[in-house]
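INTERNAL AUDIT FORM
Audit reference: QA-55
Scope: verify that the stored structure record matches its stored sequence.
Auditor: D.O.
Record contents follow.
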Amino acid sequence: MRINATDLKMMKYPSRHALQSLGEWAMKQESPTQEMIDERLELLAV
């Protein structure tokens, strides 16, 4: 599967605030799993 710049431009990304909050949260976790990250992102998106 190839992804080009147009594909990336069309994707929806979390807000800057959500990404910063996620990063702060992740640094406090010993070993966050993908499931934990997904759950946290869902909470931040609300």
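Auditor finding: record pair retrieved intact. The chain has a mean pLDDT of 91.
Action required: none
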